[in-house]
UniProtKB/TrEMBL annotation:
Gene3D superfamilies reported for this sequence: 3.40.630.30
Residue ranges constituting the N-acetyltransferase domain according to the UniProt record: 7-169
InterPro entries, A to Z: Acyl_CoA_acyltransferase (IPR016181), GNAT_dom (IPR000182), N-acetyltransferase (IPR051531)
Species per Swiss-Prot/TrEMBL record: Bosea robiniae
Protein name: Protein N-acetyltransferase, RimJ/RimL family
Pfam families: Acetyltransf_3
PANTHER family xrefs: GNAT FAMILY, PUTATIVE (AFU_ORTHOLOGUE AFUA_3G00765)-RELATED-RELATED (PTHR43792), N-ACETYLTRANSFERASE DOMAIN-CONTAINING PROTEIN (PTHR43792:SF1)
Length: 170
């Protein structure tokens, strides 16, 4: 488990299903993630995919728990998305962050993502990482820039453009 000032980051657990479903079925939250709400079965598949990623890669998305409330308020971490976007993108760990509506605007995404990146570097060594962000997702761009990500191209993904960003340690 990773602790920050306001959050705990831990591996996802079976009890996280309802919170993941609530977050991933909120159209305001998923509008930049393909724009489609997940039903409960798809949320279950999301949870099992995250858990399986940890088993296969030794890293993945953390469940983000707010210390004050004890509520699961997001998913943050690094993973291998196998997206097929380009060799420059697909050959690096991909960072991602998603927060429930009640957790947005508090700085939690940056706090959690910075902690996840520090953990990843300690566990797997400093290395280049990537992320994709929809051009209109300004809040996510702010987080990415605080983490040191810089744009290196744009591609179409899931019926819309996304900006590819990279973070080169050093």
């Amino acid at each position: 488990m990773i602790e920050t000032e306001n959050l705990r980051l831990r591996r996802p657990e079976i009890g996280d299903l309802e919170a993941i479903h609530a977050m991933r079925s909120d159209l305001a939250i998923v509008r930049f993630l393909g724009g489609r709400a997940l039903n409960r079965e798809e949320a279950w598949h999301r949870l099992t995919r995250i858990v399986g990623h940890w088993a296969l890669r030794g890293y993945g998305m953390f469940a983000v728990v707010e210390k004050r409330s004890g509520a699961l308020v997001g998913e943050v971490g690094l993973f291998d998305g196998c997206r097929g976007l380009s060799p420059d993108f697909d050959n690096a760990p991909e960072a991602g962050w998603i927060l429930a509506g009640e957790a947005q605007g508090k700085g939690y995404a940056g706090e959690a993502a910075a902690a996840a990146h520090r953990w990843f570097a300690a566990a797997h060594g400093e290395q280049r990482s990537v992320c994709i962000i929809a051009p209109e997702n300004l809040a996510s761009f702010r987080v990415a820039h605080k983490l040191g990500y810089k744009s290196f191209g744009q591609v179409d993904y899931q019926n819309g453009p996304v900006v590819m960003l990279e973070r080169i340690p050093g």
